């Protein structure tokens, strides 16, 4: 260990993270008589003792330390506050365990891990328990009261059963299990008699097994559900141990518990005998997935069960295939003929494949690179004599060992075993290297393993950029523009890197200008704009949104600006952005009509203002007086816009509205909101011809249009007598062909024939054809000597009935051609 500790471990609060994680030490002056001016120091080290952080503790007394699954340090204070620090001593956040904990203070605390995350359990001065199963999503649970509990329990721990966190505590000879609703007394099956107190308890790494140390010196081991006893061991020591942890044995599937006193460590399990070690220094035990880490002031060791492959190869006088293959390879390097003898012996037994696999597996469990190489060379040597041995296992083991050797390096300080590495996965390992700011090593591993860029190099570069954005400071001579350019030169257009995320990190650290510079390199406007709004750079966000061409994004910024600025400033901002102004007008047309009117007023846009008031005059439920007033306002606006036509048309509409209202009052019926033509037609249909003619004169309806309206209305009424009188009232300005067409449309050929004879020569043929008089149409066409009319009549000749007419037309054509 590289650290230079000035205090014994026993005088410190100690927390070590699993999977070769960091070690936190907080010298605890609250346990010793010290001057009030002495402040403790929180120190964080790597597993090899390399210092990572050191900070003076300025908060309240700390009861317990622990590491979360994300390698964040949780510091539980006496007042119930939990302070969370990063790996490098950077403060992340804090939270409270509730008012009851604050009032009664904290006696003891445990940090535990579940499938949901990392949890905290608290024992208060009122001898009540409070816990949260996931500090990332804090939900406090107050556990039930233990009947008759007047003092602190002799020992307690957290259990995780059926995805629920429980508390197991010992009060004298009794055990109680607390869940969210009940307190149950439990009894371990097969417990030796005479127990008056439980002094220590430990849960296995997977929360499946439980160990209890009694005042009689017995260690009971069973399932965490307390339904099955696995074994019991008498260690003949009644003094309470300083620590007791489980040592998992993945090879034999048997159970073992490591118990440590001041200068003695004992490994006990199913066997009748224990393994004892003398401790030269004060030591601390850290349970792991496949063993126990043991560190002191000078050493850091790993206690674990010897893997099967390693035992088969290295035990004395072993004749296992792997052992023989290792010897064969060594003899081959010496150019000895014994290599052939060993190899033949393995081949004769048909165990060469097994020998290669044993060497590969054993290499994975070795920590010394020279021994790894020796075993892998043996495996490679054996592969040469196999025809179809798949190379994947050998190649993957070489890759894994190279990665493991890199992170086990003294300066890196992550002593993972092969089993832990496989459980942790390469992605989590890369995350932990990033947390330690070991970016070059993480990138080298990604490139060596050829991980996809988005999962590997890109992600690490993004973390590096976030770190640089946070750490570079102008006081060190780094301008924001230079920092942003340096980050861009390193990252470029690397896939998976989001400049907006880096900018958000810079903004979170108070580097607003740097964040803006970084956003210049973000190609996605949808990522730029929300952060700019968050930074209160709304006008810049509007420009970016307009450049993107995304109308939804522009609307988002506009609504934000509307809430942020006063009305005058908001409108002035819009005037400088024509696209934004146009989009906002569209929005107002559907949502905020009054705002639209204000916009037109501010811009002196009288033309649009007039159109707005015309639309307003048609609002549902508006009284006639209000509608006329709105139209008058519109007419005034059109005059200001110098649109004489629109102004006159609006005034005419006002007159028409008043007249329609008067007609409704005098004649009844529905006249309001009819067009001028429909009003005339309605009057004619209702028999008020005089009124219709007067209306036409008042509004200067042309004679042709009036005749069409009257003709159509009388035909719809089928008032043929009145229609005939109307046709004779004076010469028709529209001619008499429309009369023929309207009558035929009403299927009245008789009336149509009356008007066909009055049609002028130029339309005579068409009128005669409409009433079905083909013969007369032919005579008229021949008389006019019009080729087009002749062809038209000929096209209407059908069958034998019109044969004579067709012949007449043909003869007329022939004569015309001779001339």
Number of helices: 33
Structural class, from helix and strand content? alpha+beta
Number of strands: 27
The coarse overall form would be elongated
Helix content: 40-55%
Tell me the distance between the termini: 129 Å
Largest sheet: 4 strands, antiparallel
Percent strand equals 15-25%
pLDDT below 50 for ≥5 consecutive residues: which ranges?
Answer: none
Task: Please give the order of strands in the largest beta sheet.
Answer: 1-2-3-4
Return Rg in Å: 49 Å
Query: What is the typical, i.e. mean, pLDDT?
Result: 84
Describe this structure in words.
The chain is α+β, with helices and mostly antiparallel strands. It has a 4-stranded antiparallel β-sheet with strand order 1-2-3-4, with no helix packed on it. Helix 6 (369-383) packs antiparallel against helix 7 (392-408) and helix 11 packs antiparallel against helix 12. The radius of gyration is 49 Å and the shape is elongated. The mean pLDDT is 84.
Layout of SSEs?
Blueprint lengths: L11 E5 L6 E5 L13 E5 L5 E6 L5 E6 L5 E5 L3 E5 L5 E6 L2 H6 L1 E9 L2 E8 L4 E4 L8 E2 L12 E7 L2 E8 L2 E5 L4 E4 L11 E6 L5 E6 L3 E6 L5 E6 L8 E4 L9 E5 L3 E6 L5 E4 L5 E5 L2 E5 L4 E4 L4 H7 L6 H13 L4 H11 L3 H14 L3 H15 L8 H17 L9 H7 L1 H10 L3 H11 L7 H15 L8 H12 L7 H10 L3 H8 L5 H10 L3 H11 L2 H14 L2 H9 L2 H14 L1 H10 L3 H12 L6 H17 L3 H24 L8 H10 L3 H10 L4 H15 L2 H10 L7 H9 L3 H8 L4 H10 L3 H11 L2 H10 L6 H16 L1
Antiparallel strand pairs: 1-2, 2-3, 3-4, 5-6, 6-7, 7-8, 9-10, 10-11, 11-12, 13-14, 14-15, 15-16, 17-18, 18-19, 19-20, 21-22, 22-23, 23-24, 25-26, 26-27
